[in-house]
């Protein structure tokens, strides 16, 4: 464990070991880069070694070799995620954070045309991967003096339309799961029935209308993208979570719409 700071006091991202799930997405690449710039040790996790290498170059093994630590894992497979967690725990000694950036958009025009195929895909990417990573790394987050578990959700679920009922339902389920995780973390720390201690760990939802990356800007140079959140801004917000009071952000839903 990282020492030198009183338990419950924010320590920042410096030296934190952080798993970035869905690392080859534009938001994942931005998060890995921002965490590295802040002095953290991000571990880029994706489903394809080639895409990981294309995004981050030759994989690194540790904080001093100049490369980004990379791991391939099917996050929809709980046993695979458990093996990932065990391996990282053994290699790095601890895990201080998990940034869950796995998901995707599936939508239609009406409620009636919300397909089973879309629901199954959303259930796999948005819900199954979240359940698996949170369960496999829960004890790591709870034990860390600066544990952070973060997902990205959508402001669209506040006023869901019939054409994206599948998507809104999956995101709502993911948010409920994270709130339950936050309750668990609080019950083990600041709200313990016996011997409560300062809240050190937090599960957080970051809500966006949509994410904006350079490729999307380049493809639509005349579009303004009102309310979109640049992936760099999302990544910067992720890093700041490690410097904020866990009691103030645990269970929070933070709106990042621009």
Task: Give your account of this protein's structure.
The protein has about 260 residues and is an alpha/beta fold. The protein has one domain: Rossmann fold (3-Layer(aba) Sandwich). It contains eight helices and ten strands. Helix 5 links the parallel strand 6 and strand 7. Helix 3 packs parallel to helix 4 (about 115-145). It is globular, with a radius of gyration of 18 Å. Residues about 1-5 have low confidence and may be disordered.
Q: What's this, in brief?
A:
Keywords: Oxidoreductase. This protein is of the alpha/beta class and 258 residues long.
Number of domains: 1
Report the average pLDDT across residues: 92
Which range does the strand content fall in?
15-25%
Helix content, binned percent: 40-55%
Shape: globular
Q: Roughly how many Å apart are the termini?
A: 36 Å
Radius of gyration: 18 Å
CATH top level is Alpha Beta
Give the helix/strand class: alpha/beta
Main sheet makeup: 8 strands, parallel
* Oligomerization category of the chains in this entry: single chain
Uncertain stretches of 5 or more adjacent residues: 1-6
Instruction: Strand order, main sheet: write it out.
Output: 3-4-2-1-5-6-7-10
By DSSP (H or I, 4+ residues per run), the number of helices equals 8
InterPro entries: NAD(P)-bd_dom_sf, Sc_DH/Rdtase_CS, SDR_DHRS6-like, SDR_fam
Pfam family, one: adh_short
Organism: Sinomonas halotolerans
Protein name: SDR family NAD(P)-dependent oxidoreductase
């Amino acid at each position: 464990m990282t020492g030198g700071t009183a338990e419950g006091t924010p320590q920042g991202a410096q030296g934190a070991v952080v798993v970035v799930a869905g690392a080859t997405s534009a938001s994942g690449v931005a998060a890995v880069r921002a965490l590295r710039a802040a002095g953290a040790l991000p571990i880029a996790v994706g489903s394809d070694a080639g895409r990981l290498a294309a995004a981050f170059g030759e994989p690194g093994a540790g904080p001093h070799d100049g490369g980004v630590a990379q791991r391939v894992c099917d996050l929809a497979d709980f046993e695979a995620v458990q093996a990932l967690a065990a391996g990282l725990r053994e290699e790095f000694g601890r895990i201080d954070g998990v940034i869950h950036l796995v998901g995707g958009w599936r939508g239609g025009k009406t409620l009636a045309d919300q397909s089973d195929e879309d629901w199954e895909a959303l259930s796999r990417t948005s819900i199954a991967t979240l359940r698996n990573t949170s369960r496999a790394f829960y004890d790591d987050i709870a034990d860390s003096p600066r544990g952070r578990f973060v997902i990205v959700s959508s402001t669209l679920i506040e006023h869901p339309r019939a054409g994206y009922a599948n998507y809104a339902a999956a995101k709502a389920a993911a948010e409920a799961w994270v709130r339950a995780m936050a309750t668990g973390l609080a019950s083990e720390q600041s709200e313990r029935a016996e011997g409560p201690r300062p809240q050190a760990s937090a599960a957080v939802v970051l809500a966006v209308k949509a994410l904006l990356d350079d490729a999307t800007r380049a493809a639509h140079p005349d579009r303004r993208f009102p309310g979109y959140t640049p992936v760099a801004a999302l990544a910067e917000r992720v890093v700041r979570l490690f410097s904020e009071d866990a009691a103030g952000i645990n269970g929070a839903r933070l709106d990042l719409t621009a």
